[in-house]
Amino acid sequence: MPVETLSPASAGRDERDPFEACARAARGALSANTERAMRSDLAIYAAWCEDRGVPALPARAETIAAFVDAMAKRRAPATVRRYVASIAAAHRAVGAGKTARSEVVRRALQRMHRRKGRRQEQATGLTGALRERLLAVPGDGLIDARNRALLATAYDTLLRRGELVALQVTDIVEELDGSATVLVRRSKADPEGRGATVYLARDSLALVRAWLALSGVRRGRVFRSLCRGALGETLDASQVPRIFKAMAERAGLPAEVVSRISGHSTRVGAAQDMVAGGIGMAAILHAGRWKTPAMVNRYGEGLLARRSGAAQLARLQHRE
């Protein structure tokens, strides 16, 4: 079936307008990061459709499938799947939700996966050993105090970057033993804000207290931006991986390791350390607020492989 083309009357119409309406309707219902990603995804899709003179919303399933085929040539499978999820959300908003779930779109995704696989490159895990290495880099400036506190908090709490920068001073409650509990008011898995409580060790709390004392922060956000020594009111979540990368570079980590550091690296590293330490799955799931073991198994797959039946058999047969 041929793909419908724009009529002369609609050719000059900006195809992004319907998507902007969808984004406005979703405002407040999605996290800021999700909303930004959706806007970016839909802008890429709308521009692709506009270049080819085909309607973007609502679109034919063949149009979305062709977009998938085109993007699969130069984008990672996870990115293309996110594009499709954003396109599907926009179509649901205009009552055409079945389009992006159609067989022709599924087949396009299957073609991509057969060619490129589904496996995602995993972020470098900032494990306890790397955490100590980064924290040990000399520096007594305000930015050094903030970065140490940020890294230590991220590792202990397993917070995502958006959750980390949203922490308020009043969310940290010191316990009698010198450790603390941290209230996570809202998260990716808890958009309605039921909240969760996580743990902060004594050494990490000491670094947070040092940052707060040096910066003079008494209320509001714990972690703030710094520009030529001037303290801001907030820290953008996009800065978290940049800070971790900068710390890793100063610590002398290899460039290929630094390039794979992300805002999730402390979450990955802490999970890997828990697996390596033999901590039970229930406790790991609680620490990371995961509902299933899937991500823990993904992060710790190398360590888990060394505990597999095949590995145990090799040791029993003295083949190691």
Write the layout of secondary structure elements.
Blueprint: H1 8-11, H2 16-26, H3 32-52, H4 61-72, H5 77-93, H6 103-116, H7 128-135, H8 142-157, H9 161-165, E1 172-174, E2 180-184, E3 196-200, H10 202-215, E4 226-227, E5 230-231, H11 239-250, H12 255-258, H13 265-276, H14 281-288, H15 294-299, H16 301-305, H17 309-316
Antiparallel strand pairs: 1-2, 2-3, 4-5
Helix pairs in contact: 2-3, 3-5, 4-5, 4-6, 7-8, 8-10, 8-13
Describe this structure as you would to a colleague:
55% of the residues lie in helices and 5% in strands. With 320 residues, it is mainly α. The chain folds into 2 domains: 8-116, Orthogonal Bundle (DNA polymerase, domain 1), CATH 1.10.150; 128-305, Intergrase catalytic core (hpI Integrase, Chain A). The chain has a 3-stranded antiparallel beta sheet with strand order 1-2-3. A hairpin with a 2-residue loop joins strand 4 (226-227) and strand 5. The radius of gyration is 23 Å and the shape is globular. Mean pLDDT is 87; it is low at 1-16.
Write a brief caption for the model.
By secondary structure, the chain is mostly helical. The protein is 55% helix and 5% strand. The chain has a three-stranded antiparallel beta sheet. A two-stranded antiparallel sheet has the order 4-5.
Question: What tags apply to this protein structure?
Answer:
single chain, about 325 residues, mainly alpha, DNA polymerase, domain 1, hpI Integrase, Chain A, 2 domains
